[in-house]
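Supplementary Note 2. Why include the ligand at all?

Several targets in our set were suspected to adopt different conformations when bound, so apo predictions alone were not considered sufficient. For every target with a known small-molecule partner we therefore ran a joint prediction. The input for magnesium ion is given below.
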Amino acid sequence: MIRILHLSKAFNGQVVLEDISLEIQKGEILVILGESGTGKSVLLKHMIGLLKPDQGEIYMDSQNITRLSEKDLLKMRKNMGYLFQEGALFDFMNVFENIAFPLREHTRLDRGMIRRKVLDILKVIGLEGVEKKYPSELSGGMKKRVALARAIILDSKILFCDEPTSGLDPIRSRDISDLIRDVSRRLHCTTVVTSHDIQNSFRIADRLALLQKGRIVALGAPQELRNSTDLFIKEFIG
Ligand SMILES: Nc1ncnc2c1ncn2[C@@H]1O[C@H](COP(=O)(O)OP(=O)(O)OP(=O)(O)O)[C@@H](O)[C@H]1O
Ligand SMILES: [Mg+2]
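The joint prediction is reproduced in token form.
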């Protein structure tokens, strides 16, 4: 379980997150929705320990991650998969090497095992046969799939996806969203996704949190948010 307590963050005096409290249950898919610039990525980066809050705490199970040293944070991140907004594949590595990278860095698996795991996961993400291609030879949707494969290859129990559908056409967006849901269910991952893709967020989320001006203004299951009479929520979700 992830517990965020009274988290606040400002950059150069500009408040981005203000007194955020949020609990994310084991195995659930939580989508953080909000307009561009509302602090979704900043919130996610706090959960990965890439940013330190000005105030507040974040617990992963019983561990307060805001107090961890850089070394312990690195150890913690081995148990997390994350898909960054920019995708961030290594351009100089082919698909196989990109996906194998965390296994080489963090495990002692031999070459045969690594090969088996990578080829298995290529099947899961529906990209069999592309292992020798380089990122520059892939479409945006394929890159996202490869990045997702790399994020889950260590069998992480926590998965973070920052704007997994940005820059994709509606069909690819739906595909990658469904893939995240399927992978998350299959691996029993606690999954946090940020998005401004309302339709797909409602498809895959167990719960949604709506962020506005640094605060969570709505939190609940898709149906609860759909039934809301709050004007801002109604307008945001259309
Ligand atoms: N490292 C940083 N230093 C200074 N300001 C930052 C930093 N990171 C984010 N910000 C600011 O915090 C605000 C929120 O940024 P964030 O990237 O979290 O938005 P977002 O909700 O993810 O937007 P988008 O939907 O476009 O991805 C922005 O005003 C941004 O300029
Ligand atoms: Mg963002």
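The chain has one domain: 2-88+156-237. Residues 170-187 form the longest helix (18 residues). Comparable summaries for the other entries are listed in the accompanying table.
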